[in-house]
Backbone:
C-alpha cells in the first residue's frame, strides 16, 4: 500500500497507470488526473450490493460483491489490460482504499504485476486537493487580465503561455466562457472535477513567478471558485485589454460560432434578460438574430448589456491597474501584439 503525504507526491506517483476502480458514476464526478476507470462494480451492481448490505446482511453483500468483482476484473484482463507487459506497475484506488481496490490489486499482484493501492483511496487525494484550495493561503503572485467582453482574453492567455508565461485558464478548466452565452456543448465538470483540474494546475506553478489569470467573478457558470484563489484575485493588480467595438464584435461572432449557428438556443439564452434590459432591448436583439445580422447583434449585446455591466463593476473595483493594452484588431496579429505588450509589463514586476 502506497502512502502519499502531499498532493505533489500523489501527482508525481511514478507508476505506469493509475486505475480508478470505483463505479463510472463516481469516476465521472471526479478522479485523479490521468486515471483510467476500470470499475470493480458497475453503477447498478454497486447500488444492488449496497441494498443487500443494508437489507440482508454485510456477509451476503460481501459474498455477492466478491463474485461480481472477480467477473469484472476478468473482463478487464481480457480487454484493456490484455497487452500490459510483466514490468507494468499499476496504482489502484477506490473510495477509501478498501475492499474494491484491495481485491482488484490482489488479483493483479497474483498475476505478477507490481500493483499497489493508495492508502485512504480517493479520500486521501480529495483531502490534499481540499487543503490546497481551501485551507492553505496561496503564495502565488497573481496578475489579472481584465477587459470588456470580446477582447480575446482567453486566447491571449494561450499566447502568453506560448511565451513561457505562467497562466491559469479558469474558463478552460470550468468548461464555460464565463458569460450569459458562455455554456459549451461539452458542458461543465462537477465542482470536484473542476477543483481537481485547478489543483493539478496550481501544483505546477512556481510561486516566485507571476501567474496571469483572466479576471472573473467568483462563479463561472455553475462552478464556484475556491476561497483561497478568490481571495488572491480580489486583491491582485490588473492589466486591462482594450479594442474597438467592431473588432470585439468580429471576435465574439467567431468565438461564439457554436451558439450563433443555433438560433433557438441563442434565443432561449437571451429571453431571461427581458427583466434586466427591457422587452424592447431584447426584441431588438431577436430581430437582429432573425435577420442573421450577427455582427450587429454582437455589437448590440455589448453596448446594451455587457459593457454597462462591466462599467458598474469597475466603479467599485479598487484593484490597481498596472497598465492598459490597446489593439486595433483581435485577429492573430492583434492578439500577438497584445501578448507581447503584456509580456513587457510583466518583465517589470
Residues:
Amino acid at each position: 500500500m502506497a502512502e502519499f503525504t502531499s498532493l505533489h507526491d500523489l501527482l508525481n506517483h511514478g507508476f505506469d497507470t493509475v486505475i480508478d476502480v470505483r463505479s463510472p458514476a463516481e469516476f465521472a464526478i471526479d478522479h485523479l488526473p490521468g486515471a483510467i476507470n476500470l470499475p470493480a462494480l458497475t453503477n447498478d451492481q454497486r447500488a444492488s450490493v449496497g441494498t443487500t448490505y443494508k437489507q440482508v446482511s454485510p456477509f451476503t453483500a460481501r459474498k455477492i460483491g466478491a463474485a461480481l468483482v472477480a467477473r469484472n476484473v476478468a473482463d478487464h484482463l481480457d480487454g484493456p489490460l490484455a497487452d500490459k507487459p510483466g514490468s507494468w506497475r499499476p496504482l489502484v484506488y477506490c473510495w477509501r482504499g478498501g475492499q474494491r481496490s484491495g481485491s482488484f490489486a490482489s488479483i493483479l499482484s497474483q498475476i505478477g504485476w507490481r500493483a499497489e493501492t493508495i492508502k485512504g483511496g480517493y479520500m486521501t487525494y480529495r483531502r490534499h486537493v481540499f487543503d490546497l484550495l481551501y485551507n492553505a493561503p496561496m503564495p502565488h503572485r497573481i496578475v489579472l487580465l481584465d477587459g470588456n467582453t470580446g477582447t480575446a482574453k482567453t486566447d491571449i492567455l494561450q499566447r502568453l503561455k506560448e511565451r513561457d508565461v505562467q497562466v491559469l485558464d479558469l474558463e478552460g478548466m470550468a468548461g464555460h466562457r464565463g458569460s450569459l452565452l458562455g455554456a459549451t456543448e461539452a458542458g461543465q465538470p462537477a465542482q470536484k472535477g473542476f477543483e481537481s483540474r485547478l489543483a493539478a494546475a496550481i501544483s505546477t506553478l512556481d510561486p516566485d513567478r507571476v501567474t496571469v489569470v483572466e479576471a472573473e467573478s467568483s462563479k463561472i457558470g455553475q462552478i464556484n471558485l475556491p476561497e483561497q484563489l478568490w481571495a488572491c484575485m480580489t486583491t491582485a493588480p490588473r492589466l486591462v485589454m482594450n479594442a474597438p467595438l467592431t473588432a470585439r464584435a468580429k471576435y465574439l461572432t467567431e468565438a461564439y460560432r457554436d451558439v450563433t449557428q443555433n438560433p433557438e438556443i441563442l434565443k432561449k439564452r437571451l429571453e431571461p434578460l427581458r427583466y434586466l434590459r427591457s422587452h424592447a432591448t431584447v426584441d431588438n436583439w431577436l430581430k437582429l438574430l432573425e435577420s442573421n445580422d450577427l455582427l450587429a447583434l454582437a455589437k448590440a449585446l455589448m453596448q446594451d448589456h455587457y459593457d454597462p455591466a462591466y462599467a458598474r463593476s469597475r466603479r467599485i473595483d479598487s484593484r490597481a491597474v498596472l497598465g492598459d493594452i490597446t489593439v486595433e484588431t483581435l485577429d492573430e496579429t492583434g492578439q500577438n501584439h497584445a501578448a507581447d505588450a503584456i509580456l513587457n509589463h510583466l518583465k517589470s514586476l
Summary: The longest helix spans residues 294-315. The two ends are 45 Å apart (CA to CA). The longest strand covers residues 141-147.
